[in-house]
Each structure stands twice: as C-alpha cells, then as structure tokens.
Amino acid sequence: MSIRTRFAPSPTGFLHVGGLRTALYNYLFAKKHNGQFILRIEDTDQTRIVPGAIENLIETLHWAGIEFDEGPNKGGPYGPYIQSQRLELYRKHAQELIEKGYAYYCFCSPERLEKMREEQIKLKQQPRYDGTCRRLSQEEVKKKLDEGIPKTIRMKIPEWGELTFHDLIRGDVTINFKTLDDQIILKSDGFPTYHLAVVVDDHYMKISHVIRGEEWLPSTPKHILLYEYLNWKKPQFAHLPLLLNPDRTKLSKRQGDVAVEDYRAKGYLPEAIVNFIALLGWNPGDEREFFKLDELINEFSLERVNKAGAIFDIKKLNWMNSHYIKNSDLDRITQLAIPFLKEKGYDVSNFQKVKIIVEAVRTHLEYLAQIVDYVDIFFTEIVEIENGEAREILKLDTSKTVLEKFIQKLQNLDGEIDREKFKQLMKEIQNETSIKGKNLFMPIRIALTGKTHGPELPLLVEYFGKEKIKQRLEKFISL
Ligand code: GLU
Q: Is residue 80, in this structure, part of any structural domain at all?
C-alpha cells in the first residue's frame, strides 16, 4: 500500500504550534515510508476565512522545511486541493446519501433549532437534533422542496448500538450512537460541512492514514459511518495527544505564544522549533534530544506517540533554540540577527564587524531578538566606568603598566589586530611584566567597555581595531 498523509488546515489566520506538529508528524510518517504528504485547505466555513491565510500557511510550512508533494500552488493528480473548489463533488455524494436512505433533507429553520437547543439545555439534556425532518414522509419532503423552503442535508446516525474503531495511537475506541447527532453534512448555502468534505476528500485523494489532533476523535465515528454508507475503504486513523500548558490546561494564547509566526518573528530557528515540536508527544525511546529533520524521518513511528497530553515547555524550547544558535553557521546566524539590530537603529553596514558581535554574544541568546540587550558596548562611543570595583582596578600600578605596554605593542604591530595577534601580545606582556590572570586582562576589558564582565576579550579587541582601542585606552593611562 502506498502511504499518503495530509495536513488539512482551515485558513483562519496563523499556523498554531499544534497545527505545525500535526503537519510535521504527517510529513515524517509519509517520508519515512516513501509516501506522499498532501496539503489540503479546508475552507468550507466561509465565515471564518482570513485573507492571505493560505499563502501564510504555505510560507510557514516552507520555513519549517516541511515540503508537501501535492497541494495548492503545486498541483497533483487529485486536485484541486482547496475545498471551496470541489463543491460539486460534495453535493453529488450528499445526493447519493439521500438516495440510499442514509441522509435526509432538513427544513428546520435556524430559529426553531435554536429554540430546541435552549429548551434541551434548560432540561439539562445534551443538545441534539430532535429528528423532526427524519420522520417526514416522501410526499411531505417533495412538497417542501417544491415550495423552495431552505434546507440542509443531515446524515442518519443509527438509532441504537455502538461503533468500535481502531486508532493507531489510542487502540480500540467505542462510541455509542446515542451520543451522536444527526450531523448536517450539506448546509443551506450548498457548502458541505467539514464532516462530509473531509471524508470525500480523503477518499478521492487516496489518503491512507489520517493523522490529526485528538479534538477530532469524537467526530471519527461519523466519518466511519460515511465511509460505510458510501461503500468506500476507510483510511487508518491516528489521533495525536493534546498540547498542554505547564499547568496541564489546554495550550492557550493566554499563557504564551501559540502562533508559529510569533516564534519566527522573535528569532527562533526553524530547526529548533521542528526539533522541539517533534518531541511533543513523540520520543525516540532513549535519551537523545537533538534531531535534524532527516533524522526525525528515520526515527519517527506512530507506535512511539503517547496518548497522554504533551506539555509545551517554553524553557525547553529556549534551551533547544540557544543550542542551535550557538552551533549553527555564523554567517547564517548573523544574517538572521541583522534585522533585530537594524530595527533598534544600530549600524549594520559592515557585515564582518556585525559577525564578530554575533559571535561574541550568541552564547547568551535564547532567541535572536534578545541580541539587542547585549550589544550596546559595541556601538556606544562613550565608555562609562560601571562601578567602584572597575575604577579601583584601573588605578592599580599593574593596570597602568599593562595598558601602556599594550598601546606600545599595538603601535608597533603591522596591520590590524585580530584575536590571535591579541593573544600573542598578551602572552608577551605577561612574559615581560610577570603580570597575569585577572590583573592582566581586566584593565583592558574595563578600559574598552567600562565593565568587568562581557563578551570574550579577544573578540572585543578584534571588533574595535587598533585606532579605537588606542583612543579608549589612552584616556585611562593618566588616571
Ligand atoms: N480542517 C480541520 C482543522 O482545521 C482538519 C481536521 C482533520 O485533519 O481532519 O483542523
């Protein structure tokens, strides 16, 4: 059997981190089995559509490295891949269900349905369609159709009994028909509801595995009934555990960002997000934590997806992101950091210089937007001595000696100073003066930055260059 999975978001705005996980698991499962991963846009609820959302979804998936084989803008043998362009197909099968006796027209007005609902709630009953139109005679139906009364189509749920299906993550799941409503499958505007469209599309797009969030588990029996009514082969189902806040409530915006775009905008790296998200509900079975996308493809299996909800721990994401910031190609991290510096008004015209800054501070960053908190010493023209301790150190005789020697050596140096030459000069000063350790390095650090702590000194020196260093150091020799 060829493996085909799909990610089927509604274009209602941003891509939720839970959506990204669903997309990722579908992608990993398909790729692991040399199958296809399909993107399908579920836009049958026209009231919830947000302009630009489809482009945004595609762009965010691309950013994360999750490429689909078939989908909008890309095409494929079973398109179109946007539900609003497939309406005829849904209508045809809604009609077929009516003809076979598995569905019926419902002429109840929204007002009547609302009133019924309110009464049921008042009586502490589960709100449910009362079956009025299910009981209409053929003549009554024909009469109402002829009168042109607005109508929906509802699927019939068996009146008694239960249905058991196998979920690849949750095992056998049994649902009593009593808990299900005669679901509307075609609305009065001629659009299908999700339940009909999802079954029709998964069938025509030859989806072998439906991997989606747990919130769709209660809908699955309706889908299975539709497969049976239409005499179609069912796909396999796998429902992924919920994502939770650290307090185990359902992941919500109130407790932090939930849009992938928000993380992207703060300077989280795609490989960190993907790595982190992959571990929300899946584990490799051992202690390993770092995985690149191709490694995830190799390792992934639905058997290792948990049933229990997965906690979205931002601290872990930050830790993981900082690992990738530290270990990724410096040119790339510099490119990604530049917009944040630019936005703050820093001069980023000299790439080589900015690269030194990024190298010097990247070990402190959990995400790239934080870079602006660490770089003022590189851009400020005025060095202010931070505290008494720094001032005292500068006043030491050894400090004066070090500063004088260093300036002298700088003057004699051919060409610009870099980190290696700096280390060499400091070794010479140590040999000539026997001053070492803190007493040797601290005066230079304080004279350059005013502070006793900060980025690695050799990088600072390389960044400032001969002229600026001389200017800054000379001020302190006379103290
Ligand atoms: N359109 C549904 C959603 O927005 C897809 C559910 C499914 O995968 O069946 O999540």
A: no
